[in-house]
Amino acid sequence: MRRKFIALLLVATGLVLVFGVATASETEQTSTVVPNQPPDGAEYVGEQTCFQCHGQSYRDWQQTPHAMAEEPVGCESCHGPGSVHVETAQSTDLSDPNSETVRELRQTIVKTVDAAVCGQCHAVNDAGERSAGYLPGTDLSAVFTLADPANEDVFWPTGHEKLPGTQYNGWVVSRHANALPTITEAGFAREECLACHSTDFNFQNPTFEQDVVTLENAQFGITCVQCHSPHGALAEPQLRFEAYDLCVSCHTGTDLGNNPIRVGGTVHHPMREMFEGISFLGLDPNPSPHFANEAYGPICSSCHMPQTVVIDEENSAASHTWLVIIPTDAAEGQPDSCTGCHSVERNPDNTPENLTFVIEDIQEDTMGRVEDIRAELDPIVEEQGWDPEAEEKSEAQLTAERIHTLVSFVEADGSWGFHNPGYADDILSEAEDLLDELFDLIEE
Question: Does residue 180 contact residue 173 with C-beta atoms inside 8 Å?
Answer without folding.
Answer: no
